[in-house]
Amino acid sequence: MKLDVGDKVALVTGGGDGIGRATALELARRGARVAVLDRDEVAAKAVVAELGEARALAVTVDVTDRHGMALAVGQVVEHFGGLDVVVANAGITPPPATLWVIDPVDFDRVMAVNVTGVLNTVQPALDTLIAQRGHVVVVASCAAFSPPVGGAAYMVSKAAVEVLARAFRLELAPHGVTVTTAYFGFVETQLARATLDETPIGRQLDALMPPLLRTRISAEDAGRVIADAVAGRKRSTTAPVAWIPLGVLRGVLTPALDAVLTRAPLVHRVIRELEGAR
């Protein structure tokens, strides 16, 4: 069953920048009316200015604010008269660190945004989504099945949100609501550049990945992948496609990969540098 987004209403969190912005623009290009939710008011309003206020709405809200998100969803439904698609995209990464030295505040913030933020986004929209037999996209990450070196908090959060999306898919199926889990490898955004390019440790962590998996797609590519997943009501989507085998074969590959990495001198060196950085 396809979903034509023409004149449908879509809500996108983290819509002011990166993947969220690109998704909002792409859905609007395909005819959707779009609510751009972001904690950065200026960024959200800039996207709406591109789209035109007749077909877009900016809402300033932090996904960790449960009450605020409920009000935001209500505002979107009231403004547009309904809600058909929810893209739970907002996410953050912590500074590179091992679990020994990470600031617990950083760990908690990642979980609050990347996991609980998805629940806060989707749950208040469910009455309307069920009535409309709508669609949900949960932006997970290929980090859900990547080796958790130097960024375990992020990997843990994306593995958790993968299961959260699966739970939504199973529980909403009787109501006619479909759910996509979107897995992205490296996407060329400011978040990726700050994490991987702008610090020596980040560059070392990037270099640990096989060259094929280090390939980055643009935020615009990611937005098109999400929009295509909505149109096809796909259960999951992965980009770049080089990550698909790792996701499919993770049950076999993960133990073998962990066995190799626990003995790798380069990994040991990076871990000690991360520990020393505290």
Structure report:
- 52% of the residues lie in helices and 15% in strands.
- Helix 1 runs parallel beside helix 2, helix 1 packs across helix 9 and helix 4 runs parallel beside helix 6.
- The chain is globular and about 60 Å long.
- By secondary structure, the chain is of the alpha/beta class.
- It has 12 helices and 9 strands.
C-alpha Rg, in Å? 19 Å
Calculate the mean pLDDT score and round it.
Answer: 90
SSE-based structural type: alpha/beta
How many beta-strand segments?
9
Question: Which overall shape is indicated by the principal axes computed on the Cα atoms?
Answer: globular
Low-confidence stretches: none
The helix fraction, in percent, is: 40-55%
Strand content is 15-25%
Helix-strand string: EHEHEHEHHEHEEHHEHEHHH
Number of helices: 12
Span of the ends, CA to CA: 52 Å
| Largest sheet entry | 7 strands, parallel
Main β-sheet, spatial strand arrangement: 3-2-1-4-5-6-9
Write the layout of secondary structure elements.
Blueprint: E1 9-13, H1 18-29, E2 33-38, H2 41-51, E3 56-60, H3 66-80, E4 85-88, H4 104-122, H5 126-132, E5 135-139, H6 152-172, E6 178-184, E7 186-188, H7 190-197, H8 200-207, E8 216-218, H9 219-232, E9 236-239, H10 244-248, H11 250-261, H12 265-276
Parallel strand pairs: 1-2, 1-4, 2-3, 4-5, 5-6, 6-9, 7-8
Helix pairs in contact: 1-2, 1-9, 4-6, 7-8
